[in-house]
Amino acid sequence: MSGVRIEAVAIDGPASSGKSTLAREVARRLGFIFLDTGSLYRAAALALLSAGAVRMAEDDPEVVRILSSLDISVRPDPSGARVLIGGLDVTDHLRSEEVGSLASRISAWPIVRKTLFDLQRKLALEGRIVMDGRDIGTVILPEARLKIFLVADPEIRALRRQKDLEARGDRRSLETILADILDRDRRDRERLLSPLVPAPDALHLDTSRLTIDEAVTWIVDHYR
Asked: Which pTM does this prediction carry?
């Protein structure tokens, strides 16, 4: 990886810290492309779910076969990149809790990270992009001109997640959502490959008590 800075913004942080919402708006204000890299892991999870491989281990031959032949591509779109599997747009099928939960689990699998690494790097190196995820500033795009690490109180993240789920007709208790977020935090921090840690030169932004506009303005001002 070169030491040349790339005109890009890398936004990392834990689940429901506001990464995608902020990254999409930052990209709009800067005139950049927005890519939610978590959607790529969700696409891999969706492929496994569709094949009935949800309970299989990462070294299962069927899992290896599915992931080895996985054809994920990205199509730029004004509202953010559209994700395709085998040429079929699956973007609207990626936000379910089932897909998200499995994506969180398989994101620690080396075979999944290897499968998606080259795609993410290729998109990142084109520049003029805002990418959000768990390891963008540390692994995928360490050359980004600006790296942000978001944090927010777990309870506030749980409330945000509950609101998003209710908007889709999914009603579940705040306690259940909070427990899931804390479990995801633990898995993200403790995984051996690309754990959730801030890049050494990342700026930390606590979104707990900021409006979306305040947080976006803060990021855009620092970029400029």
From this structure: 0.81
- Short-list 91, 55, 98, CA closest to 76: 91
46: tokens are 């969706």
- What pLDDT is attached to residue 81? 80
End-to-end CA distance of the chain: 24
The Cα-based distances of 38 to 62, 102, 135, 201 in angstroms read 23, 12, 10, 22
Yes or no: say if 12 and 199 are a contact pair by the CB < 8 Å rule. Answer: yes
Task: Evaluate whether 138 touches 197 at the Cβ level (below 8 Å).
Answer: yes
32 CB-side CA count, 13 A: 26
DSSP 8-state symbol, 168:
T
Check: CB of residue 149 under 8 Å from CB of residue 215.
no
- Mean pLDDT along residues 212-216: 96
pLDDT in tens, 130-157: 999 889 999 999 999 999 999 999 999 9
Residues 6+ apart with CB under 8 A from 77: none
- What order of strands is seen across the sheet that includes strand 129-133? 33-36, 129-133, 6-12, 144-151, 203-206
In whole angstroms, give the CA distance from residue 166 to residue 210: 22
Tokens of 168: 């889709």
In the chain, what are the domains?
Answer: 6-223 (3.40.50.300)
